[in-house]
Hints:
Layout: E1 8-18, E2 21-28, E3 40-43, E4 47-56, E5 59-66, H1 68-73, E6 84-89, E7 108-118, E8 121-127, E9 141-144, E10 147-150, E11 153-155, E12 158-163, H2 165-170, E13 181-186, H3 188-199
Antiparallel strand pairs: 1-2, 1-6, 2-5, 3-4, 3-6, 4-5, 7-8, 7-13, 8-12, 9-10, 9-13, 11-12
Amino acid sequence: MFTGLVSDVGQIVSVTQKGDLRRVRIACSYAPEGILLGASIACSGPCLTAVEIGTQDGRTFFEVDAAAETLARTTVGRWAPGQRVNLERSLKIGDELGGHIVTGHVDAIAKIVERRDFDGMAHYDIQVPDALAKFIAEKGSVCLDGTSLTVNSISGSVFSILLIPHTLSVTTWGERTTGDELNIEVDLMARYAARLVEAK
């Protein structure tokens, strides 16, 4: 379980195909002793398991395996060395819940259809698959590339968000522009509410 508050920005070091799995090594600023083998880490959205931890060139790294479902549903299959990713370690009991409840189970890939910059801030219009639009609500929460964000408005399958300078500087959002793809996880409560309605 996560909150969508990014605690580090890592960098893809290597990507290796291992049969049906894709092994990804990610360099980060976390202390190596602070990452347990088998720990869950949200990597730009998807919750991935640390299967190896070590140090390289003075930096901590951890490795994760991405299976077919993750590769099909997220942007992980497009990751390449040098790319930066938002990181968040799993929530501990007693931690501050500053964002919203995030599971790390990505629903689909969304796309930035427009970015507009002003006063150090950035306004994004995001296109989501039609099937997910019903889960997006004005002033509700959404997780994009592992970041908990507030929906400003929605029209059809396009919604808007506004990022302040701090968020742009401490996440990968400063690099995101028109045409970029994003991992999206809709709000957990919205998902269950919709399922309860369908069950009736």
